[in-house]
Amino acid sequence: MTTPHVGILGLGVYLPARKLTNFDLEKMVETSDEWIRTRTGIVERRIADAKEKTSDLATKAAARALKDAVISAQKIDLIIVATISPDSNFPSMACKVQKALGASDATAFDVSAACSGFLYALTTAKQYIRTGMVKNALVIAAERISGFIDWKDRSTCVLFGDGAGACVLGKVRSGGIIADFTRSFGKYGHLMEVVAQEVRSPFDPQRTMPAQLPRVVMRGQELFKVAVNSMAEAVEEVLKKAKMKKSEVDCVVPHQANDRIISAVARKLGIPKEKIFVNIDKYGNMSAASIAVAFYEAVKTKRIKKGSKVVLVAFGAGLVSAANVVKW
Known about the structure:
Blueprint: E1 5-14, E2 18-21, H1 22-26, H2 33-40, E3 44-47, H3 54-69, E4 78-82, H4 93-101, E5 107-111, H5 117-130, E6 137-143, H6 154-157, E7 163-172, E8 176-184, E9 192-195, E10 215-218, H7 220-242, E11 251-254, H8 259-269, H9 280-283, H10 289-300, E12 309-316, E13 320-327
Parallel strand pairs: 4-5, 4-6, 11-12
Antiparallel strand pairs: 1-7, 2-3, 6-7, 8-13, 9-10, 12-13
Helix pairs in contact: 3-4, 7-8
């Protein structure tokens, strides 16, 4: 029996209307537009409305992907949401999306792999389809990072934005997702984490201490080197699996963490910068959603065309890395 090809049938995104520019941030913390641009490449980012939950962003992006794929929610068998900013610990975002879309027959669960989450979810959904467990899958990456950023910490608050991207997966005649790579580096987990202290248990001897709000802690200089090396390695390894040379790649869509990181990865791999898709200037780092949104924009702006060979690559807190080769 021939293993089926699995490809992307439709794409969709949802971006909150509110734009937070570097000039807006100048009024909030001790920073400047010049400082942010030169160190990150970011000009503005989107911020969700106070009433918009992560599940709302996810549902809107998913609905647009279904429309693009010309498929109804009732024909979706699997929903995976990649997020590190869920509405709550449970129910899962995927179950909330299932309810909102009316995809009553779909198995639904979340994946937590930080900025690599979309690619982890993509690879997982692909395997479900290849093994015959499901026919059509909906993969969503949605983040509302603004909800747990320390807006007084200029080293992190300038980096992140909110948004969501989604895709519908199914069987295709040829091409599609032709190779995958994932790797984890738990020993580097301390380089980027969300810290908080919960003191609600009566068995905790420190229960009288005031609870701390969650906040992102990042050790940027150490993280930079690991990020560049892990992303470059992921590209090399996934191309080996695809039996492709770097010269055959038409477009690389990297996680939009920092323009300096993206440029360093391109140099390390020897891939021309013009083959790298970058939109961090408009949205900042949207964690799991960044690649989903960038991939959508690369397709809609014709940077990715029919027959294009594309590499998607990411790294994220954990630390985790991932890459996929897609023939569009």
